TrEMBL record:
Gene3D superfamilies: Acyl-CoA dehydrogenase/oxidase, N-terminal domain, Butyryl-CoA Dehydrogenase, subunit A, domain 2, Butyryl-CoA Dehydrogenase, subunit A, domain 3. Residues 6-117 form the Acyl-CoA dehydrogenase/oxidase N-terminal domain. It comes from Variovorax robiniae. Keywords: FAD, Flavoprotein, Oxidoreductase. This is Acyl-CoA dehydrogenase.
Length: 376
């Protein structure tokens, strides 16, 4: 198997790296964290112009026909620059569900405008009591006239505070933990019966909780068959795991580079602290952890094409376990080797560590994936 990037993939990688280097320095990011929206609309439009928002979608859907490796290239660049725009929420999560089960007309109405940067999407699937169990859904969608009445709550909706439309997973039949009976419905963020509660997360990105009370949507806003959304949701979350694995590799890569530069320049007793053999060994350990993470991120992206869902789930759990382990190792070493300044707001190191910590608990923490891997 040839694991080298194609010329087109190298061009994509170079475009993302150039954008991060020239348009998205740490000072700019700090301003965005303190802003009301938490991201830069000008940068979001640039994502659309560069074609990044269309990367994983087929040409029939209006995309450029990329695969998980292409998405991983963009996500690695996002990790390098700690970009705050809701790429994961739009392209991987909500866009993934629309691409998997939406009709041609629905894709033209919601997916293609998202690719053009005209509006933003978010996927609302998690609930306060669900933890990491995708099937656990207490939000209901009952038939009412020519549509559905939705009642319930959704928590930690990535990019939910700025979304124009939410893809809501609701239960149309069955018990709260049944895999069957889940339905995907598109909800307008301006609907009067929808309350959006946005907030900033630990790493500076944004999420929101949703409260839906008697919200009515037309049947034309149902994505796919009624009660059959679970397989698509499961696949999309596996795709999100592969995506954040690549993002973690980008963040770890930057931390390794920053730490090496610091060891070369920080003077103690008249010489760089990097001449200390013990610190050199720790630096080598960071490099090894980074290479292990990069290999597992690529493995996860390749295994998304596995036809057997059980095999795919096991592979993505293995990816998440290794990414969490290596991210913790690299993040902790970077902070410790920088000393007390490693956790200050003024230094980027602590911000990268925060993002890696959030990736560690996203879409299932290490303990949860160890259990899923063992059961598989």
């Amino acid at each position: 198997m040839d694991l080298q990037y194609t010329p087109e993939q190298n061009q994509l990688r170079e475009s993302v790296e150039r954008f991060v280097r020239e348009e998205y320095d740490f000072a700019h990011r700090r301003k965005l964290v303190a802003s009301e929206s938490g991201h830069d609309e000008r940068c979001w439009r640039s994502y659309a112009e560069f074609g990044w928002l269309a990367v994983p979608f087929s040409e029939e859907d209006g995309g450029i026909g990329g695969d998980a490796t292409d998405t991983g290239i963009v996500m690695e660049g996002i990790g390098r620059g700690l970009l705050l725009e809701p790429y994961l929420a739009n392209v991987v999560l909500a866009g993934g569900v629309l691409s998997a089960v939406g009709s041609a007309g629905q894709k033209a109405e919601w997916l293609q405008p998202m690719m053009a940067g005209a509006h933003k999407l978010a996927l609302a699937y998690a609930e306060p009591a669900s933890r990491y169990e995708l099937a656990h859904c207490e939000t209901t969608a009952r038939r009412e006239g020519e549509g559905y009445r939705i009642d319930g709550r959704k928590s930690f909706v990535h990019g939910g505070g700025v979304a124009d439309f939410h893809v809501v997973i609701a239960r149309t039949s069955g018990e709260p933990s049944d895999r069957a009976g889940l339905t995907a419905l598109v909800v307008d963020a301006r609907a009067p019966a929808l309350e959006v509660r946005p907030y900033a997360t630990h790493d500076g990105s944004r999420a929101a909780d949703l409260v839906l009370e008697g919200l009515h949507v037309d049947a034309s806003r149902r994505l796919g068959e009624e009660g059959a959304a679970y397989p698509a949701l499961e696949l999309v979350i596996d795709q999100a795991i592969a995506a954040i694995a690549s993002e973690a590799v980008g963040a770890m890569s930057t931390l390794v580079d920053m730490t090496l530069d610091y060891l070369k320049t920080r003077q103690q007793f008249g010489r760089p602290i990097g001449t200390n053999q013990a610190l050199q060994h720790r630096m080598v350990d960071m490099y090894i952890a980074l290479d292990e993470a990069r290999s597992m991120a690529l493995y996860g992206a390749l295994m998304l094409g596995e036809a057997d869902a059980a095999v795919r789930r096991k592979a993505l759990s293995a990816t998440k376990i290794e990414i969490d382990r290596t991210a913790r190792r690299v993040g902790q070493e970077a902070v410790q080797l920088h000393g007390a300044m490693g956790v200050t707001e003024e230094l980027a190191v602590g911000h990268y560590f925060k993002r890696l910590s959030m990736i560690g608990v996203a879409f299932g923490d290490m303990s949860w994936h160890l259990q899923r891997h063992a059961q598989a």
